[in-house]
């Protein structure tokens, strides 16, 4: 069954994701619900960057589209990424009205950008700047050939984007470092947390103090490099530390 990202149960949904491929499939399935066929998760290129492909963490974009973008040096004239570097506001645009969104560009560059987008069947798009807890900045971009989305749909996808970028950053880090295992007691307590129990309820179930429960959770957070319980549960589920 294809996983779809659900804003109403993010911890549970993210806990089913075991790899960057799983996350990409979930993003694609979610985007398809809005008739969007192009999604990309990227770090935000610096002003010195020349190739967008060097910054793509995952995308459903065709290799040809990325090749054409880099070959035509589109990044060098992009005000889109300049805006993403300077602001945390979502950026929404329509291809046939792109001159209204890039007024600092020359007419030649505007025409060049529109031609590129039309060639790749992109009539609209929106990008969400996102921040990871390690301080890195990225963007989740949705593009396709459809009309504008309503505000509620945009807010939904904005929330999904924040969690997706955080998770893809974690998955990338996980691939480059060994996993530090939880103790039997930490796994036991975390399993109860995943089932909705509070520290007080867990202390009664296990016949230990609240302080002991919280100490084990704090230790698990440090091992798993997490900042709160929902993130800890999601990561532990994804890594198979609890079931």
Radius of gyration of CA atoms, rounded to a whole number: 21 Å
Counted up, domains total 2
Q: What is the ordering of alpha helices and beta strands?
A: HHEEHHEHEEHHHHH
Strand percentage lies at 5-15%
Spans with pLDDT under 50 lasting ≥5 residues?
none
| Tally of separate helices | 10
The biggest sheet, with number of strands, parallel, antiparallel or mixed sense and barrel status, is: 5 strands, antiparallel
**Helical/strand content category:** alpha+beta
Q: End-to-end distance, in Å?
A: 18 Å
Number of strands: 5
The level of helicity is 40-55%
CATH topology of the largest domain: Beta-Lactamase
Strands across the major sheet, in which order? 2-1-5-4-3
Question: What key attributes describe this structure?
Answer:
243 residues, alpha+beta, Beta-Lactamase, Arc Repressor Mutant, subunit A, 2 domains, 5-stranded antiparallel sheet, 5 strands
Provide a short characterization of the protein structure.
The protein is of the alpha+beta class and 243 residues long. The chain has helices spanning 10-15, 20-32, 63-71, 79-86, 107-119, 151-174, 184-194, 199-206, 210-224, 229-239, and strands at 38-43, 56-59, 91-94, 124-131, 137-144.
């Amino acid at each position: 069954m294809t996983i779809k990202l659900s804003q109403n149960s993010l911890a549970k949904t993210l806990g089913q994701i075991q790899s960057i491929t799983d996350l990409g499939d979930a993003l694609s399935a979610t985007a398809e619900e809005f008739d969007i066929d192009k999604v990309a998760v990227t770090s935000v290129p610096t002003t010195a960057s020349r190739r967008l492909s060097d910054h793509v963490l995952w995308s459903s974009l065709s290799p040809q589209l990325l090749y054409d973008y880099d070959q035509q040096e589109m990044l060098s004239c992009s005000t889109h990424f300049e805006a993403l570097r300077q602001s945390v506001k979502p950026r929404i645009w329509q291809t046939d009205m792109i001159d209204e969104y890039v007024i600092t560009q020359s007419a030649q560059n505007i025409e060049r950008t529109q031609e590129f987008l039309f060639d790749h069947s992109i009539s609209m798009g929106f990008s969400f700047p996102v921040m990871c807890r390690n301080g890195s900045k990225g963007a989740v971009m949705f593009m396709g050939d459809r009309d504008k989305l309503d505000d509620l749909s945009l807010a939904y996808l904005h929330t999904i984007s924040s969690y997706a970028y955080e998770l893809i950053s974690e998955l990338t880090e996980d691939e480059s470092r060994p996993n530090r295992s939880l103790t039997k007691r930490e796994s036991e307590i975390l399993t109860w947390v995943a089932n909705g129990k509070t520290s007080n309820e867990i202390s009664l179930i296990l016949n230990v103090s609240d302080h002991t429960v919280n100490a084990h959770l704090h230790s698990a957070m440090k091992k798993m490099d997490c900042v709160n319980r929902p993130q800890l549960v999601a990561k532990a589920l994804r890594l198979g530390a609890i079931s």
